[in-house]
């Protein structure tokens, strides 16, 4: 579904599945390559993360010249290795699948391998443009993941979740159906489709600001404005006489102009003068 959606977006924006981004020629034609996290790391580093301990992952990252520290758990270490050595290698649209459980505390365990999760990210030009996974709906497993996150937080990992969400766990105990979620980074996708290296150029929010509405004023109000434009700062009585409006129409027009902030009446003793704002 994701690759068909992205392909459709490319066709709608450019009329073709091919796009240029900087020095890269990208083809958004589905289907896209699928590479597991383990295979990606092994391909670009020669290191197999399968079954490795935290100490082994730490030593491997250090040997690769990656800046790691003792606060990082297995998930963070794997993430750093992938980010430094693999992520930038995927230029054409590629699904990275089967993330280790330690990297995805809210993802459901893989049905074929409990050490992995059912999660994928779509990479283009070395950047993630989509993230999706099966939601973890087992309250026992979720509590264990929260506890593991708390241990990482206590260790000093500032990205780990340091609390156990009891309300969420209680909700899971009542029951949650099989659920999945997909998030697509639309701004980043549009950057790639329109060859824009700056995200500021494609942010949609400035275009969402409401336009200034054109004031709708009556014919009587227009008449008074035209009289003031020919000669601003006129005596109220004189202006009323020039307009030849009835008392009722004059009052309505003056109230409307004042409401729109187009005119103001200046009072000086017994003298009243009308002028444009």
CATH homology superfamily name of the largest domain? Bira Bifunctional Protein, Domain 2
Kindly state the percentage of residues in helix. Answer: 40-55%
The largest beta-sheet arranges its strands as 3-4-5-6-7
What characteristic shape results from the CA principal axes?
elongated
The total of beta strands comes to 10
Give the helices and strands as they follow along the chain.
Answer: HEEEHHHEEEHHEHHEHHEE
CATH topology of the largest domain: BirA Bifunctional Protein, domain 2
Mean of residue pLDDT? 90
- Structural category: alpha+beta
Model regions low in confidence, pLDDT < 50 over at least 5 residues: none
CATH architecture field of the largest domain:
2-Layer Sandwich
CATH class of the largest domain: Alpha Beta
Largest sheet: 5 strands, mixed
Describe this structure in words.
- The protein is an alpha+beta fold and 277 residues long.
- The protein has two domains: 2-137 and 177-208, BirA Bifunctional Protein, domain 2 (2-Layer Sandwich), CATH 3.30.930.10; 219-276, Orthogonal Bundle (Arc Repressor Mutant, subunit A), CATH 1.10.10.
- 40% of the residues lie in helices and 18% in strands.
- The protein has ten helices and ten strands.
- A five-stranded mixed beta sheet has the order 3-4-5-6-7.
- Strand 5 (119-124) and strand 6 form a beta hairpin.
- The model has no long low-confidence stretch (mean pLDDT 90).
